[in-house]
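Researcher: Let's run the pair from yesterday's discussion. Sequence first, then tokens, for each.
Model: Starting with the first of the pair.
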Amino acid sequence: MPSPGTGGTNGVPHFNGGEADPKLPGLWFTGMRPSIRGCFANARIQAKAITQQIVRQGR
């Protein structure tokens, strides 16, 4: 379950994968959207997007 203020009424985060809430830097969600590719393929794609954002931020 997402932290208060990060998700909609359906419990799904507003931001997912390489997207992050500017008000909550460093908080990332992955695997929170259904995908026809499947869970593991989608997790790999989202993990790469998150990693790229972290590197860009210099963390």
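Model: Moving on to the second of the pair.
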Amino acid sequence: MADGAFLFAVLLALVAPLVLYALVRDEHERDRETVDGWDEAERAARKDEDAATSVDTDAARRDPDAGAETDDGVEKNGWGRRD
């Protein structure tokens, strides 16, 4: 009986780290796939945002404050007054 318990303890000591390594590696791969998905989604969102907020560069050069917002979120006109 003591030999069986000793054999079980030795076997557990050898197999347990390998099982834990396999589990951690699998979780790491799943996390990497998730993060890759986030990166791809973020790039797509930036493309959409850039397309939606394209600015007429000539108008921006003529009046850099055109369409600027104040701290309270109210858009101001070119004279610095709120409309």
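Researcher: Give me one sentence on the second I can quote.
Model: The chain is about 70% helix and 0% strand.
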